[in-house]
Amino acid sequence: TEPATAMASAEELVAAGLSHAVARQLNCLTEDNKNTRKRALDAIRKETLGRDLSSGALQGLFDHLLKPLLRCLSDPMEKCRETSIQMLGDFIRRVPRPEDSLPYLVPALTQRLGGPEIVEPAEELRLALLGVLGLAVELCGGRLAAYVEDVVKILQRTLVDPFPDAKKESCRCTVSFARAVPEHFHMQAESLVKPLMQTISHQHSRVRVAVIEATGAVIQFGNAKSLDDVLSHFAQRLFDNSPQVRQAVTTVVGSWLLNLRDRYSYFHKLIPLLLSSFSDEILDIRLLAADYWKKAGCQWQQENEDDLKDKLDFLTSPPSLYPAGGKAFPSV
User: Fold this and answer.
1) N or C: which end of the chain has fewer CB within 10 A?
2) What CA–CA distance (Å, rounded) separates 157 from 118?
3) pLDDT digits (tens, 9 = 90+) for 269-302
4) How many other C-beta atoms can be found within 10 angstroms of the C-beta atom of residue 46?
5) In terms of DSSP H, where are the helices of the chain?
6) Is the pTM of this model over 0.85?
């Protein structure tokens, strides 16, 4: 429509005007003096993100500023790298088409985070970069399908990052990414199992919980054959000192019993883990396990109704060895 076209043209003019206004500052980003580079970044932020601009105008500015900001990720001065990361996150959060940045953003993040050696020396900045990746996953969703290999390469490295908060953020990003691109994720998921299992016994219980939840997503949206590499670690976590860790194992195993694609093939491996939680010292965990047991049994009964019809219709007494109060145990 004409009003929309006029608005778009006005936004383009605003973006073009501001791009011209910050041109000198952009040139300063290549100066040798680190303070000059820092002042230039601050001035660019003030002239762009610091103004009350429409999302369309910000999009035009972001298109113009993206490459210079990505180059600043390798600036020798930590404060310059920090400012550029913050600006990237702010732009991605505020522009209407964050996916336009992916062809340049993802390779830059891979270069900073996905190599065999740690390239970004500041742990807080590695965490901030992971935050940018998580934001891109949240806002771009399925449009990241073309970058599965790069994102998984990053996560393989950052799941074993020395910084505990980076490990947790990597786990959260793994879960979000698996859900965002499930049909593409399964081809690469297996490569995340090893780094997750390397981290599952970390000294911080919150890291262990995050790893267990991420493993749940990797198996759910990946290849269930990787369960054999996971179950012994999960069994050990059922004896974890932290109730939150034991609860996480119970939740993930219960979810697998209900939702894995080939779940019946793995029941004989998953059920012993769930039954172990029936004797947990924490009541809430025992109740959680019983709830999953009941749900899994009812689901199995419904999905096999034709095979069970005669038994369901004509069984007049419980089978031998059926537990007392069996109505509470529609077992699998």
Assistant:
1) N
2) 9
3) 999 999 999 999 999 999 999 999 999 999 998 8
4) 12
5) 2-21, 23-28, 34-47, 55-71, 78-94, 102-113, 123-140, 148-158, 164-180, 182-185, 193-199, 205-221, 231-237, 243-259, 267-276, 283-303, 305-314
6) yes
